[in-house]
Amino acid sequence: MREGIPDEEDGRVPPSRGKRRVRADAQRNIDMLLHTARTVFAASGVNATVREIAEKAGVGIGTVYRHFPNRSALVAAVFRHEVDACADAASVLAATHPPDEALATWMQRYVDFIVAKRGLAAALHAGDPAFDALPAYFEKRLRPAMQALLETAAAAGKVRGDVDPYDLLRAVASLCTPDRDGGAAQARRMVALMVDGLRYGATRDGC
Amino acid sequence: MREGIPDEEDGRVPPSRGKRRVRADAQRNIDMLLHTARTVFAASGVNATVREIAEKAGVGIGTVYRHFPNRSALVAAVFRHEVDACADAASVLAATHPPDEALATWMQRYVDFIVAKRGLAAALHAGDPAFDALPAYFEKRLRPAMQALLETAAAAGKVRGDVDPYDLLRAVASLCTPDRDGGAAQARRMVALMVDGLRYGATRDGC
DNA sequence: TTGTATACGGAACGTCGTTCCGTTTATCAA
DNA sequence: TTGATAAACGGAACGACGTTCCGTATACAA
């Protein structure tokens, strides 16, 4: 066996653990599908056709369904993929920038993620069981990322320490869906303002 | 060029204004379709099939498409229908109850509306052009209703006068979509609390 | 009652998500 | 290197959907 492995909880078909490894061409197609799907979803929205994705990935339809049980699973996998990318960006930034700068930069990165996923956010609340686990995954990956950045910045005295990481994530997400057509620019400004607000309280101690 | 007339802005096919009136059987079918669609949407969600609705309404598919250009238009028409019903309830309550009681009762009526429309709310943000006009219609009908109730109650000294009607409508709508599974009961309690909050400030004057 | 614009019903079309299966290929043991 | 075989591939085919089309039925004005 490869590992203890608590259920993949991934949308992908488990690789029938045991004998052979995953074939190289299969892995190549999975990566290609995820990459293509991400591009197509970004360009044409989450309602893009399975056929379109398969074609642009240079792959037959059957291949898509070999790796993903259904369309929703592909959407969910892309979502997880981007959550991972966003979460990973946090540690990279933390290692290469001063604490408050890392925080501010990552917040903008997070805004990009939220704005790009607006179409999917609508689908999330539509009751497809394939999406049930996504909010939990969102919290699981993104909360620690934000928490680490906040704590580091707070320890350096650059930011107040009384802010709950997940509250902040949700607040920013709300700011990014203004119902009005303020667009991404407005959202970015509001979030920048929020980060300044975090910095402001740092010099004091109490409330 | 058939007419001057500022577009129906209704989802329905305009009755080719001019010669004849709408045929009686046609009107009967339209009413039946709206009623059936409302029931089916409530029971099976907004993704219910056109065929199912047609069948339960005792009507052919062609008849549905004679009166509604597409599925989305039927959904939009049902939505408008229920917005109207909710708005009309306000004036009825205002005429039959004391001001603050009318307000409190209508708020609960509004909660019922919002909760029932949760599934549709997701579809609203999915970019279907048939739904573009719905938020405006929502505001156009519901804001005056709420405003009238608020002003009457405020004039009677039962409620504070510094609350924007539309802000309140939106706030209640937010309370009714808790992401968690608090359900309708929790939403009702929160809104009741909110109404009590309105009443509380009435005895004072300033902030 | 009759003429006709209007409305009706449902077969048929194109597209979608998904399944199925004959064919191709990567991998491993010999 | 070669052969055996599990794995992956491609795309035709299926059922369900939204929508269109058109021959038939019917309400209404005369």
Helical content class of chain A: 55-70%
Q: Please mark out the parts of chain A with pLDDT under 50 across 5 or more consecutive residues, or reply none.
A: 1-18, 201-207
**Mean pLDDT value of chain A:** 80
Number of strands of chain A: 0
Quick one: overall form of chain A?
elongated
Radius of gyration of chain A: 19 Å
Number of helices of chain A: 9
Class by helix and strand content of chain A? mainly alpha
The largest sheet of chain A is:
none
**Quaternary structure:** homodimer
Helix and strand pattern of chain A: HHHHHHHHH
| Terminal-residue CA separation of chain A | 53 Å
Main interface: chain pair and counts: A-B, 12 and 11 residues
Note the beta-strand portion of chain A: under 5%
Description:
The structure is a homodimer of 207-residue chains. The first copy, chain A, is an all-alpha fold. Chain A contains nine helices and no strands. In chain A, helix 1 packs across helix 2. The N terminus and C terminus of chain A are likely disordered. At the A-B interface, helix 6 of A face helix 6 of B. Chain A binds a DNA duplex (30 and 30 nucleotides) through helix 1, helix 2 and helix 3.
What's the helix and strand layout?
Two copies of one chain form a homodimer.
Chain A: H1 24-44, H2 50-56, H3 61-67, H4 71-96, H5 99-116, H6 118-124, H7 134-155, H8 165-175, H9 183-200
The structure holds a DNA duplex (30 and 30 nucleotides).
Compact summary:
With 207 residues, chain A is mostly helical. Chain A has helices spanning 24-44, 50-56, 61-67, 71-96, 99-116, 118-124, 134-155, 165-175, 183-200. In chain A, helix 4 runs parallel beside helix 7 and helix 5 (99-116) packs antiparallel against helix 9.
